[in-house]
Amino acid sequence: MPLCFLSVRPPPPPLITCHVSPTAVHPPPSASAPPQVPAALPSLSLSPSSTPPPPPLTCALHCPHFESCSGCTHEFNLHRPVIVDEATEFFKTVGVSDFTFDSCKLWGWRCRAKLAIRGSPENPLIGLYQEGTHNVVDIPQCKVHHPSINAAVELLKQGITELRVEPYDEDEGTGDLRYVQMAVTTHNTSLPASERYKNGKVQVALVWNSRNENSPNTEKLQALANFIWRNGGPRSTVNLIHSVWANFQTSSNNIIFGNRWRHLLGERDFWEHVGGIDISLAPSSFGQANTRAFDTLLRKLQKYVPQGASVADLSVRCIEINKESKVSFEKTVDRLPNSVECSISWHLADTSKDPLSWIMGSDVLVVDPPRKGLDASLVDALRSIASAKRKAKSSSDSSSSRGKDEKRPWMLRAKEASVQIGSEITSEDSKSWPQTLIYISCGWESFKEDCKDLLSSKAWHLEKAHGYNFFPGTQSIEVLAVFKRGQGSPKKKRTGIKQKKRL
């Protein structure tokens, strides 16, 4: 099925390096400064061949919560975590000598945060757990949060105190407010593009300690939502709230969200613009925390998808185990320009079961697994793709996995729950097999293992690899790797000595 990545706006300006004067890379505002949105910081681009990094303080965290909060692991050289050197050497060993690494905003980049709420009405604590404990560290001046999140956290604290809302007590299982998710949308078409990021609006999702909206303590929930909207909504002096939602959760486990959601105030639809298209995200949907870095990665990914290719994306898009993503998928497709002629479908399924059924019929495969990496069954399917292709060809008519006598329950459920936009895949198209595998990784260790497994089978070779600084202040990097079918052309060794012709 063709999955179309659209470029409806010009690409961003070229990335510049971090090796500039200290006045070009502005440090974040001081801890004592009031919450405000800083001017946009320059984008950063690094490669293995770049000059040595600048003095540490030019790209330092400057956060008062460092070492007490579990969010960031290092203070200096945010533009180039040490793991980049390891990645550079690893890719050389597997045939890629031109690995690149891009870093965008170093502060104020996080547009999505899940924060625990503990303490008391007089002194609410909103933040992250201290490393190795369930003690919440209050982080009101977090340097990685988009400034609108910090401002919304302060507003929420005021509401908790004024309305006497009881933060959750984990030991007793009592209290009202357990967690809050804050997501920033920077896609406001009423503003010039240059002003949209710094004027981002926050979708606030309150995780309430009750079964549903009919529980006795939900009157206080509505009062808190009204307080946030009255003091941060469009009619307030500081308009920073997009909407307020409630999630109901009473479980004693570590799962943040329950299954029941309710829209309370503000806009219902939450939009972001990434990869050239508008994306709809429900509060229950997974969304990338670093919107700008994700946009940069998607625009690079587009270059590796041939025009008109049939694409299977085994991550969030069309083959998804989260049933709530269906509505977001339909809304996103509705916003595609009319000039786009493509076939896109959505399926509620687990691709670890019979993955070849999903791989077949695609020219390009896009995988974006969780931190643990690809499921073993998918890795095995990719390693044996050549033999699977031969087997499918010899029995295409009698034992097609897409035939009308399909009896596998998970395939039947996926078919029943599917959404088809545009024409369905033709029988001829369904016989194709992917020639390109695009792997988006957020787990470096698992990616290395998956990469070694794929290459050892000789079914794939690694053509390109790019790294992205999705989480400045940590040793995590996002990797975009492009694999091609087959072993590839062996690289000629240059000896530097010309041999004399034999007479």
Task: Explain this structure.
It contains eleven helices and 19 strands. The chain is an alpha/beta fold. The strands form four sheets. A seven-stranded mixed sheet has the order 1-2-18-19-17-15-12, sandwiched between helices. Strands 5-4-3-6-7-8-9 form a seven-stranded mixed sheet. A three-stranded mixed sheet has the order 13-14-16. Helix 2 crosses helix 4. Mean pLDDT is 79; it is low at 1-27, 29-50, 397-404, 408-414, 425-429 and 493-503. GO terms for molecular function: RNA methyltransferase activity.
Question: Characteristics of this structure?
Answer:
2 domains, 22% helix, disordered C terminus, OB fold (Dihydrolipoamide Acetyltransferase, E2P), Rossmann fold, 19 strands, 7-stranded mixed β-sheet, 503 residues, globular, disordered N terminus, alpha/beta
Could you state the CATH homologous superfamily of the largest domain? Vaccinia Virus protein VP39
Order of adjacent strands in the largest pleated sheet? 1-2-18-19-17-15-12
Q: In DSSP terms, counting alpha (H) and pi (I) runs of 4 or more, how many helices?
A: 11
Which range best describes the helical content: under 10%, 10-25%, 25-40%, 40-55%, 55-70% or over 70%? 10-25%
Major sheet attributes: 7 strands, mixed
CATH class of the largest domain: Alpha Beta
GO molecular function, one term: RNA methyltransferase activity
InterPro entries: RNA_M5U_MTase, SAM-dependent_MTases_sf, U5_MeTrfase_fam
Binding site for S-adenosyl-L-methionine: 288, 320, 368
Keywords: Methyltransferase, S-adenosyl-L-methionine, Transferase
